[in-house]
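hey so u asked for the seq, here:
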Amino acid sequence: MSPHHSYRQTYWQVHALIGWGAALWAGVIAGIVFAMLNIGLGWVVRGESPWTPLRNVAAIALGPDALAPATTFDARVVLVAIVVHLVLSMLYAIFLALLLPTTDRPFSILVGGFYGLALYYINFYGFDAFSPWFAVERGWVSIASHFVFGAVLAFAYLAINARKLRRSPGRD
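ran it, structure tokens below
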């Protein structure tokens, strides 16, 4: 067996362990937990309107006009914010799933937490040129929310994917 064949076989064995559906569902679950935590802490700790974070997210798709008035409800803005947030959460979940198939649960949850911190820095500093309105959201509330997002994402992904792997036929 050639080294190239061995690498390709190992790649496909690991690839087969990735649960794409599990990643998407984990993204939805972690996205909901993140939203509740971030909006709740933002409201309690920062005293900001619960509509402000939703307007910030919606402005990614709708542009800066969606930001004002920050403290009022707008059904279109809320719907766009939910869709954008869940799509991003699912995309982030797919990337995390690629990192996790060969790690154990406690380490994976820790990796997930640090993955969430990396997302914080990417979102709040890397994408700053495209969405500068997020700069005011920087701080420990967003850092904690991102860490929890990543940890919940990893935990949910592993739990959902483990169920799928236990049910799959042909397992030794």
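Residues 23 and 97 are 6 Å apart (CA to CA). The mean pLDDT is 87.
lmk if thats what u needed
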